[in-house]
Amino acid sequence: MECNKDRIRLDIETIAGFNSTPGQGTTRFTYSDEDIKAREYLIKEMERTGLKVSVDQMGNIRARLDGKDDSLPIVMTGSHIDTVTNGGNFDGVAGVSAGLEALRTLVENKFQPECSIELIVFVEEEGPNFKFPLAGSRILTGKFPVSSLKKHFNSKGVSMHDAAVARGFDPSDMRRHLFKEGEIKAMIELHIEQSVVLDELSVPVGVVGAVAGRKWIEIEIAGKSNHAGATPMNFRNDPMDGAAKVIASLRDIVTESANPTTVGTVGKIDCFPNEPNVIPEKVCFTVDVRDIEKDGIEIVERELIELTEETCEKHGLEFSSRVLSETEPIIFSKKVVESIIESAKDKCIEYIEMNSGALHDSCLMAEITDVGMIFVPSVGGRSHCAEETTDYEDIKKGADVLLGALIKISEA
What percent of the chain has pLDDT over 90? Predict the structure, then answer.
């Protein structure tokens, strides 16, 4: 059995047409008109395929291909269709289309799996609308209460709960839709890599074994604000000078002291009062540290704080630090990973084993069932931008590997 590249292309290009920012990348927020149209298209295609479609009271879509024994736990695949602002056409959508195509291929070949296989489309994975990333999977797996939907608002001040109600959903009735213990045998998500590795190596498939944990650390360095022209250099307590020394040292800390898999990023800097002719009073910046090994994150945090303390003592500055958020590293199921590898070998599709530095809905699913992920290349490593592109032949190969793995797991 082999998936159909043209159908995958049609799905992705059709969904790409539901876009509120044409010519400026793709923007499709949860519960927007564009999102509703994309949902209608997918539901129509699912029903045309002969799948049993249900939509819960948040809007998560589930489409089931019945197995021989409907009492067995299901195998699940899927992703999301919402985008960041001015994003691309493949993030999330590639996984939804590949999953749909895998089920289409089973149906047209009259293949009935041992247990049922479901395609799921999670709502609000990206989180740009309500600042609640992974909302669908967080709620369904019981990691957040349904009441959380009332605490997250869009730019117009409308809560996710009220926006759902405006589209005809009833989140107060979500509890009966939450995943039940033992309901799901395994989950496989196909996703674009969103990085450069597969594209640089010209390898069509990545088999993901782990997802990096993440810690966001905020550091604030305080000094003495003064006139930029009238204050001699040797009389300054400049927090920008101290912050610059710490930030510039992050790369060396990560590469020399931590693990080969550790990465660190300073992505946000705030300066007060942020005027061109004023020595700042304080500088605040965030450090994003990720690794599949928890000790790598801890090493960077410890050495970063030690360096900040030494720098501030030397320059007459004060500092404080706090952890804004953190997630644990996730190791995917050996059984699912091996099924994906076996499928790639069966189909003679080249692959490499790799890790993910980004969070996905599968990360939440890993807390309740066995999970694996398949990556396909992002051309130039570009993602979350208008230039985001993945070759359809690579998506097709990823879908073929997904198809084989779903069959193997359903029959195991």
Answer: 97
